[in-house]
Design goal:
alpha/beta, 26% strand, globular
Length: 257
């Protein structure tokens, strides 16, 4: 069993996001970075599958040299190898990212044979495009399902489950296949001391691939922060004197008969 997990370096959740003056990028001066949460769960899913069925799992990232931090973290929790497709530091659009990943997978498979399973995050935590995994699977001619909350291997097939408003759907796909993993499928493990030491020693493979932006493709005009909403608290009164105001409020909300 050979598994490839694609991860992305994203700003740490909960941080205040500021934009550069030209509104073309995020100001990363005071930001911490982490792996996109959906992809953390994809890494854990790959580690569990390898533990249960044998084989190995490789982690791949498209990003700046600093993305080595996220790759080494993935190695510390069970990935056997790491691959970085370096960029110029700009956040590529989904088409360009997918082309880069497709080219990298093609080269890796030419050397060591096909991956049985490609795992992606359902969407990245920053741009939330929901596209990259589907585009890569389509380019490679492999079946793919997004929003996955369960993965089971059975010989030459993989059984994928996802939740919907109508219940739980189950898909059986022939291998090789791809899946977009959703946060909550598992609880990612913490790295052990042995894992951290191993991640420091691992040699990260760098693959330079041709993935130029397509003419006429998506183009970012500018980034825009949503308007911040101020919240306030109104004190209706104190003690028994507040009762009339409470009754008036309940009547306004329509909860009184």
């Amino acid at each position: 069993m050979r598994i490839l997990v694609c991860v992305k370096r994203v700003p740490a959740p909960g941080a205040r996001i500021n934009l550069t003056a030209d509104e073309q990028a995020i100001d990363t001066t005071h930001l911490g970075f982490t792996t996109s949460p959906h992809e953390e769960c994809a890494v854990e899913a790959a580690a569990q599958l390898v533990e249960a069925h044998g084989g190995s799992a490789t982690v791949l990232a498209v990003g700046p040299p600093e993305a080595e931090e996220q790759l080494r973290y993935a190695v510390s929790v069970g990935m056997a190898a790491a691959v970085l497709v370096p960029t110029d530091g700009a956040d590529w659009d989904p088409q360009r990212t997918a082309r880069a990943i497709t080219a990298a997978i093609t080269r890796l498979e030419a050397d060591d044979g096909p991956f049985d399973l490609l795992l992606f995050g359902n969407e990245s935590a920053d741009s939330g495009g929901f596209q990259v995994g589907i585009r890569v699977a389509h380019a490679l001619g492999r079946p793919v399902v997004n929003g996955i909350k369960g993965i089971e291997l059975d010989g030459g097939t993989v059984r994928l489950q996802r939740d919907t408003d109508a219940g739980r759907e189950t898909y059986e796909l022939p291998l090789p296949a791809a899946a977009g993993v959703k946060e909550g499928i598992n609880l990612p493990r913490y790295p052990t001391m042995k894992g951290r030491l191993a991640s420091k020693r691992v040699e990260i493979t760098r693959l330079d691939v041709a993935a130029e932006a397509e003419p006429g493709g998506q183009r970012m005009v500018r980034l825009q922060r949503p308007v911040e909403r101020d919240s306030s608290t109104v004190i209706l009164g104190h003690g028994a004197a507040a009762a009339p105001a409470v009754v008036d409020l309940l009547a306004e909300l329509g909860v009184l008969p």
